[in-house]
Write a structure and sequence with these properties.
The protein has 160 residues and is an alpha+beta fold. Helices cover 28% and strands 18% of the residues.
Length: 160
Protein backbone atom coordinates (compact mmCIF):
# COMPACT_ATOMS: atom_id res chain seq x y z
CA UNK A 1 0.00 0.00 0.00
CA UNK A 2 1.29 3.49 -0.86
CA UNK A 3 1.84 6.10 1.84
CA UNK A 4 0.02 8.80 -0.15
CA UNK A 5 -2.33 8.07 -3.04
CA UNK A 6 -4.53 10.15 -5.28
CA UNK A 7 -7.06 8.71 -7.74
CA UNK A 8 -8.90 10.55 -10.46
CA UNK A 9 -8.45 13.94 -8.83
CA UNK A 10 -10.46 16.64 -10.51
CA UNK A 11 -10.86 20.21 -9.31
CA UNK A 12 -13.07 22.83 -10.90
CA UNK A 13 -13.36 26.27 -9.33
CA UNK A 14 -16.73 28.00 -9.53
CA UNK A 15 -16.66 31.36 -11.26
CA UNK A 16 -19.37 33.86 -10.46
CA UNK A 17 -21.49 34.40 -13.56
CA UNK A 18 -19.45 32.03 -15.70
CA UNK A 19 -18.46 28.48 -16.41
CA UNK A 20 -16.30 26.68 -13.81
CA UNK A 21 -12.55 26.85 -14.34
CA UNK A 22 -11.00 23.39 -14.57
CA UNK A 23 -7.73 23.28 -12.63
CA UNK A 24 -7.13 19.51 -12.48
CA UNK A 25 -8.49 16.60 -14.43
CA UNK A 26 -7.84 12.90 -13.79
CA UNK A 27 -4.70 13.34 -11.65
CA UNK A 28 -3.56 10.01 -10.22
CA UNK A 29 -0.40 9.36 -8.22
CA UNK A 30 1.16 7.07 -5.65
CA UNK A 31 3.96 7.99 -3.24
CA UNK A 32 5.76 5.47 -1.06
CA UNK A 33 6.80 6.20 2.53
CA UNK A 34 10.12 8.05 2.58
CA UNK A 35 9.96 8.89 -1.11
CA UNK A 36 10.87 12.39 -2.24
CA UNK A 37 8.63 13.76 -4.97
CA UNK A 38 8.72 16.98 -6.97
CA UNK A 39 5.76 18.41 -8.85
CA UNK A 40 6.95 20.28 -11.91
CA UNK A 41 5.04 22.25 -14.49
CA UNK A 42 4.37 25.67 -15.91
CA UNK A 43 2.64 28.41 -13.97
CA UNK A 44 -1.09 27.76 -13.65
CA UNK A 45 -0.97 24.01 -14.33
CA UNK A 46 -2.40 23.01 -10.92
CA UNK A 47 0.69 22.22 -8.81
CA UNK A 48 -0.50 24.32 -5.85
CA UNK A 49 -4.03 22.99 -6.26
CA UNK A 50 -2.76 19.39 -5.87
CA UNK A 51 -0.79 20.38 -2.76
CA UNK A 52 -3.78 22.22 -1.27
CA UNK A 53 -5.93 19.12 -1.79
CA UNK A 54 -3.27 16.85 -0.22
CA UNK A 55 -2.99 19.28 2.71
CA UNK A 56 -6.78 19.15 3.15
CA UNK A 57 -7.26 22.89 2.59
CA UNK A 58 -9.62 22.32 -0.34
CA UNK A 59 -11.68 19.32 -1.45
CA UNK A 60 -11.42 17.86 -4.93
CA UNK A 61 -14.48 18.12 -7.15
CA UNK A 62 -14.01 14.40 -7.85
CA UNK A 63 -11.53 11.71 -6.85
CA UNK A 64 -9.90 10.73 -3.57
CA UNK A 65 -6.70 11.36 -1.65
CA UNK A 66 -5.59 8.74 0.88
CA UNK A 67 -2.82 9.20 3.43
CA UNK A 68 -1.81 5.94 5.10
CA UNK A 69 -5.10 4.44 3.91
CA UNK A 70 -7.29 7.22 5.39
CA UNK A 71 -9.12 9.74 3.25
CA UNK A 72 -7.87 13.33 3.49
CA UNK A 73 -10.89 15.50 4.23
CA UNK A 74 -9.41 18.37 6.24
CA UNK A 75 -6.06 19.77 7.40
CA UNK A 76 -4.29 17.59 9.95
CA UNK A 77 -1.23 17.50 12.17
CA UNK A 78 0.06 14.54 10.14
CA UNK A 79 1.02 16.89 7.28
CA UNK A 80 3.28 19.94 7.20
CA UNK A 81 2.98 22.67 4.61
CA UNK A 82 5.42 25.43 3.67
CA UNK A 83 3.46 27.99 1.70
CA UNK A 84 4.69 29.99 -1.27
CA UNK A 85 3.72 33.07 0.69
CA UNK A 86 5.13 33.03 4.19
CA UNK A 87 1.65 32.76 5.74
CA UNK A 88 2.68 33.68 9.26
CA UNK A 89 0.06 34.52 11.85
CA UNK A 90 0.72 38.25 12.38
CA UNK A 91 -0.92 38.31 15.82
CA UNK A 92 1.53 35.66 17.12
CA UNK A 93 5.10 36.10 18.26
CA UNK A 94 7.90 34.22 16.49
CA UNK A 95 7.99 31.37 19.00
CA UNK A 96 4.18 31.04 18.92
CA UNK A 97 4.24 30.84 15.11
CA UNK A 98 6.98 28.22 15.12
CA UNK A 99 5.33 26.08 17.81
CA UNK A 100 1.89 26.22 16.17
CA UNK A 101 2.24 22.68 14.78
CA UNK A 102 3.31 21.31 18.16
CA UNK A 103 0.28 22.89 19.83
CA UNK A 104 -1.96 21.47 17.07
CA UNK A 105 -0.62 18.00 17.99
CA UNK A 106 -1.33 18.61 21.67
CA UNK A 107 2.34 19.03 22.64
CA UNK A 108 2.98 21.74 25.22
CA UNK A 109 4.34 24.80 23.37
CA UNK A 110 7.52 24.92 25.40
CA UNK A 111 8.10 21.16 25.58
CA UNK A 112 10.74 21.45 22.85
CA UNK A 113 12.03 25.04 22.96
CA UNK A 114 15.62 23.81 22.84
CA UNK A 115 15.12 22.17 19.45
CA UNK A 116 13.33 25.23 18.10
CA UNK A 117 16.01 27.50 19.51
CA UNK A 118 18.73 25.41 17.85
CA UNK A 119 16.93 25.56 14.49
CA UNK A 120 16.60 29.32 14.73
CA UNK A 121 20.18 29.89 15.82
CA UNK A 122 21.54 27.60 13.11
CA UNK A 123 19.49 29.53 10.60
CA UNK A 124 20.78 32.80 12.06
CA UNK A 125 17.28 34.25 12.19
CA UNK A 126 17.09 35.30 15.82
CA UNK A 127 19.59 35.65 18.64
CA UNK A 128 18.95 33.09 21.37
CA UNK A 129 18.05 35.45 24.24
CA UNK A 130 15.55 37.44 22.19
CA UNK A 131 13.76 34.28 21.09
CA UNK A 132 12.63 33.30 24.55
CA UNK A 133 12.16 36.66 26.34
CA UNK A 134 8.50 37.78 26.32
CA UNK A 135 7.97 40.88 24.20
CA UNK A 136 11.25 40.58 22.27
CA UNK A 137 9.92 38.54 19.37
CA UNK A 138 9.19 40.84 16.50
CA UNK A 139 6.10 39.71 14.69
CA UNK A 140 3.60 40.80 17.33
CA UNK A 141 5.07 44.27 17.86
CA UNK A 142 3.25 47.01 16.03
CA UNK A 143 5.39 48.87 13.51
CA UNK A 144 8.17 46.25 13.49
CA UNK A 145 8.33 43.50 10.90
CA UNK A 146 10.53 40.47 10.42
CA UNK A 147 12.82 40.51 7.41
CA UNK A 148 11.81 38.38 4.43
CA UNK A 149 14.54 35.87 5.30
CA UNK A 150 13.38 35.59 8.91
CA UNK A 151 9.76 35.09 7.77
CA UNK A 152 10.86 32.35 5.37
CA UNK A 153 12.93 30.61 8.06
CA UNK A 154 9.95 30.78 10.43
CA UNK A 155 7.64 29.33 7.76
CA UNK A 156 10.07 26.47 7.05
CA UNK A 157 10.65 25.63 10.73
CA UNK A 158 6.93 25.56 11.65
CA UNK A 159 6.08 22.20 9.99
CA UNK A 160 9.28 20.58 11.30
Amino acid sequence: MAYLEGWGIRKAFEVEGGAPTLALEEVTFSVGEGEFVAILGPSGCGKSTVLNIVAGFIRPTAGRILLEGREVAAPGSDRGVVFQEHALFPWMRVLENVTFGLRLKGVAPFAAPGAILVLYCLAGAVQAPSLLRPGDCLCAQEGVELSGDARLIEAVIRPV
